[in-house]
Amino acid sequence: MDPIWVPTAQRVANATVTDLIAHFNAKLGRSIHDYAGLHTFSVHEPEEFWDGVWEHARLIGTKTEPTLVHRTEMPGAQFYPNSLINFAENCLAHDAPENETAIISYTETGASSQRTWRELRQEVANFRYTLIELGVQSEDVVAGFVSNGPEAIVASLATLSLGAIWTSCSPDFGVQGVLDRFGQTNPKVLIATNSTRYNNKSIDLTDRINGLLSKLPSITASIVFPGACPSSVSGLIRRPSCYIVNFDKAISGSHPLEFAATPFNHPGFILYSSGTTGVPKCIVHSQGGALIQLVKEHRYHVDIKAFDRVFYYTTCGWMMWNWLLACLASQAAVVTYDGSPFVRGAKTLWALCDQDDWHVFGTSAKYLAAIDKNRYQPRDKHQLTSLKAILSTGSPLAHESFDYVYRHIKEDVLLGSISGGTDIVSCFCLSCPTIPVYRGELQCAGLGLAVDVVDDSGQSVIHEKGELVCRQPFPVMPVQFFGDTDGSRYRAAYFERFTGIWAHGDFAERTERGGFIIHGRADATLNPGGVRIGTAEIYRQVEAIPAVLESLAIGQVVGDDVRVILFVVLREEITLDDNLRKMIKRQILKNTTPRHVPEVIAQVPDLPRTVSGKIVELAVRDVVHGGIVKNIEALANPDVLDYFKDHPDVSI
Q1: What is the largest CA-CA distance in the chain?
Q2: Architecture of domain 525-643
């Protein structure tokens, strides 16, 4: 297979990862020549590698030996047990000029704002003082029910500067969905937005906030800001014995910017699993582990440099928000957007990209597929002069989407299909600016990560589908699950499938080039006739048909076997008929195997998805089999499950 993009010699020479190779060669006397050699070094000599990243990235902290203890134990290994580092300090205390832009923020109303590094540093310092006044101490939890904007960035950095723990949910969660998360972590202070807006609909959040305060007795204070549409707010935030503070007051003053000297493994963030199979797991990540891993990804895998403008379409309930926040540690300007990405049609985000010269455009595979379906061609309508990387995650990026990006967005751009998750607040497989891009593939395993694909016996396989695993410890392994005092839930989540190996739960394939193909979640794979099939293999073929907007496949148990059921969402004016069914089946058969061809194809008006936009196959599978969806609050649109219940096309 020929590559779809090859970096120029100049781009390779100027890449930060090339400079990292030179750093190791000069300091250690090595002869590393390329990314493959660097990755081999990084997993064979993890102490030297991570020490080199700390030094080369000029992380602010006190690095003390040892670098790694209990090196072979998973779980049990620990990086930098005696070192000190603060995530917020590394995002703010570097030498980015005071008058340079640090944050660019947009709402879907068209409103925008910018903060310079001077303004951001002062607001964080003042907010930090407010938290101290409210009694926040190290390891207290500060929770954000917040939209993706500058307020969330200020509040989180102030929290981390104290050694307290930041956790957040987006305003599109219902009260019970937030309680399923914050109710487990006992926050002391709640940061909340009073209103939000999505797809031209204003939403008053007053009742939700009051509902949270009434059910979360651990909260002693709430800091509130107006949000995107303050005119829609109809009531007051109040609860006995809870002090309410205006956000503007919290960021006022001229207090000094200070940082706690937190241990490398000090808890910094609590993130939550999707909750689609039960109560969400509360995953605790360390300040140092999250920082060094994300700085590594930004600088060496995406080539983010000082003063770049980095955008990722995300909410504060998705790990990509944490990924975006950490870009500040590379002195890049963070670009936030709150609202629908289609509020002004397909041009919405691309017009902003052009207007403010974004360097990195981060989005989801579903978004790229959607604008392709809309036949929108950004390269014909926008300059995109500064754009050097487009990143996609959330689900596997189809081969056709690779073609679309290079034909209709930009020819010379790094297209990074990236994959990881909340579990590691980062990526296992991702991009590299110095090696070619191949259709349908994630370019490489992350530096310092011994990523592999294994069969059921735990043996490595190439060009065969298997489980995505990591064979060695890495700095951003969770500190713990919050409340999991004996570690049993943590071990069960990742280490019971294969002893001493992290099993990530993705169904994947490794290529001879060192790239990876993600075929879907392992727990959603289909098993007709005993053959495992990744759902992404089917979606890629089905969604190439113009009439199909989205699809979802499950395995339905019939006697002793499993049959494949395919649900499709079609364009508004189209109804599924036998001709379209035959077309879909021919498309799948032509490009896959007879096992992939669904026995039943049924039309539905919508698919269930999490609040971060991920399609939820397991919920549909449960409904079709007459089961109960364990945590319906995890879904953004739970009502659509009714379309699948007793569907006439799938009844047995």
Answers
A1: 71
A2: 2-Layer Sandwich (3.30)
In this prediction, residues 144-158 reach a mean pLDDT of: 98
Q: DSSP states of 306-333 as a string?
A: TT-EEEE---TTSHHHHHHHGGGGGTPE
Question: How confident is the model over 197-202, as a mean pLDDT?
Answer: 92
* CATH 3.40.47.10 correct for 84-516: no
* Tokens (6 digits) for 410: 């930009």
Q: In the chain, which segments carry CATH 3.40.50.12780?
A: 84-516
In the chain, residues under CATH classification 3.30.300.30 are 525-643
In the 8-state DSSP scheme, what is residue 581? Answer: H
DSSP for 66-121? -SEESTT-TTT-EE-TT-EE-HHHHHHSS---TTSEEEEEEETTS-EEEEEHHHHH
pLDDT at 276 over 70: no
Residue spans of alpha helices (H) in 326-381? 348-355, 365-373, 378-381
Q: What are the tens digits of pLDDT across the range 277-316? A: 678 899 999 999 999 999 999 999 999 999 999 999 999 9
Predicted pLDDT at 277? 65
Query: Token pair for residue 255?
Result: 């207090």
Distant-in-sequence, close-in-space partners of 55: CB < 8 Å, separation ≥ 6: 23
- 465 vs 41: CA distance, rounded Å: 26
E strand or H helix at 191, and its extent? strand 189-193
Confidence band of 217 (pLDDT split at 50, 70, 90) = very high
Written as six digits, the tokens of 372 are 């392709």
Task: Please give the Cα distance from 224 to 195 (Å, whole number).
Answer: 10
pTM of the model: 0.91
